[in-house]
Amino acid sequence: MNPAQQDKQFEGLLEYLQSTRGFDFTAYKRPSLMRRVTKRMQMIKIDSFSDYMDYLEVHPEEFAQLFDTILINVTSFFRDQPSWDFLAQQIFPRILEAKRPNEPIRIWSAGCASGEEAYSIAILLAEALGPDPFRDRVKIYATDVDEEALTHARHASYSEKDLEPVPPELREKYFEHGSNRLIFRNDLRRSVIFGRHDLVQDAPISRLDLLTCRNTLMYFNAEIQGRILARFHFALNDPGYLFLGRAEMLLTHTNIFTPIELKCRIFSKVPKMQMRDRLLVLAQAGNMEVGNHLARQLRVRDVAFESSPSAQIVVDADGNLAMASERARTLFGLIQRDVGRPFQDLELSYRPIDLRSLIDRCENERRIVKVENVQRSLPDGSAQTLEIQLTPLFENGATIGVSIVFNDQTRYFKLQEELQRNQQELETAYEELQSANEELETTNEELQSTNEELETTNEELQSSNEELETMNEELQSTNEELSTINEELRQRTEELNQTNAFLQSILGSLHGGVAVLDVKQNIISWSRRAEDLWGLRSDEVQGQSFVSLDIGLPVEKIKTAIRACLLAESEYEEVTVDAVNRKGRTIKCRVACTPIIGANKELHGTILMMEELNSESKK
């Protein structure tokens, strides 16, 4: 497969993952992302991305394995220890010094994986504040896109090996012993909040004092990194601090973050510049009458500008805020000292929309630029909709500034939204009504069909009931037959028990020991006299090969006699051998072998009679 086809199939796989599972990996760097997916495909022996997409459709459980491979959750407590030491010794004291007593402290751990980083921050802050102030003031938001890693993090349970980087005194102070695990203190755990968050798609957590995102940005391309860092800049307070991983730099984003300790990858949000002095009033020229007339004109212009019902500002050709009406100052929190400052230093220049690029466009194209439906969040949580109009200002053919007017269209926008919403609801209600009518007709047809099916089913049930009654009678008859057979079996069992007892009494009455062997020379029966003679119980030898017993009897000398009986070559064989009984005494033992022949002349085994010869017998 050529590289172009491979790339096309890979992009199709990414689109499939986004549409089916809601994970958008298109922002990740292609070489590393393709390398991880290929690694997972090699584990299950699949060669092409299109075949792997087919495999995912048939095996949905494979998604979890793929995401675990892509979202590498590599983390540990106090990873890169010098960076954490700098954070504890330099950054946390600055944060606490800038806060009023009892003022909340908000921290966001983005890409937290299994939670070690969030709990490391909690330990350092608890050491700096003490447990009680920590519980009252601190909120640590820990987020990731991997639900399995978040589940692990919420349990706050780690092994001894996981906690090796934690100093012993901190481990003893902040972790409690569970069943073979160490669990982070529950009272402090409540201040650490875990949740799923996609850095590319979801809105950032705001009003932060510290934001940690270690070795996560490296997986995104440059465009997405810039977008994420802009959100981080918005999320942080002023002052606010950003803590990155060792593999990440901000060389191209120095306009929004400045390094505090580059070696530790700790940055601060770029603060607002110092306010400049107001512009000096130019000295009046000419006589007093002309000066007074000019002053009155300027005063009328200023009052008219201040009294404008729309918020209006003017940015001069040098990029400084030249004028701001009272409505503009109230709306955007400006003060008189902001007049004369570089416009790019004001929050208004980039929020709620980037006005700097619009100003450049207006000056370069020398025409009015209008932007509608600009959304702005107010301090009380409500939203405001603005229409922004930028008008270039000319003098003698040269551009001397840009006038920016903000028209509040919130009421009109809300009415328009409400009208559109009502129209949509009306259309939806009409569609639902039409759908309900169709469903009602379908339901009536289904009910009629169901009624016919129920009548048929009722007839079938009546027939089945008659068959069940017949089967019940047959079962009763069969039960009576089984009772008769059971009674016969009981009688035969009693007869068999009596026969076995009679056989055991006969074997016990014989003077010698008796062993009954089957055709394979395995022991079937072993008399009590044989137990006394050789010292082995019946349950120890039953089923064992007679020729393999170690009982003091030289079995090799009587194997010939046993084989002759088993081959029906002889009806009786007798052998006298020297043996050792269970007491260890040497005796003369006579072994008589007789075949067991059934009624149909079939050979079933042999009977061995083993008898100890006394001294008279020896003579």
CATH class (first level) name of the largest domain: Alpha Beta
- The CATH superfamily of the largest domain appears as Vaccinia Virus protein VP39
Mean pLDDT: 84
Counted up, domains total: 4
Low-confidence stretches: 272-291, 615-619
A few lines on this structure:
The N and C termini lie far apart (101 Å). α1 (3-21) packs parallel to α3 (49-58) and α6 packs across α7 (131-137).
Folded structure, characterized:
- The protein is an alpha+beta fold.
- The protein folds into 4 domains: 17-70, no CATH class; 81-269, Rossmann fold (3-Layer(aba) Sandwich), CATH 3.40.50.150; 306-412, Beta-Lactamase (2-Layer Sandwich), CATH 3.30.450; 511-618, PAS domain (Beta-Lactamase), CATH 3.30.450.
- The chain has helices at residues 3-21, 30-43, 49-58, 62-70, 81-98, 116-129, 131-137, 147-155, 168-174, 186-189, 222-235, 288-306, 326-332, 355-365, 410-509, 528-534, 538-541, 559-566, 615-618, and strands at 105-110, 138-144, 157-158, 175-177, 182-184, 192-196, 208-213, 236-244, 257-261, 266-269, 311-316, 321-324, 369-377, 383-395, 398-408, 513-517, 523-526, 573-580, 586-597, 603-613.
- The chain has a 7-stranded mixed β-sheet with strand order 6-2-1-7-8-10-9. Strands 12-11-15-14-13 form a 5-stranded antiparallel β-sheet, with helices on both faces.
- A hairpin with a 4-residue loop joins strand 4 and strand 5.
- The longest helix is centred in the last third of the chain and has 100 residues, at 410-509.
- The model is unreliable at 272-291 and 615-619 (pLDDT under 50).
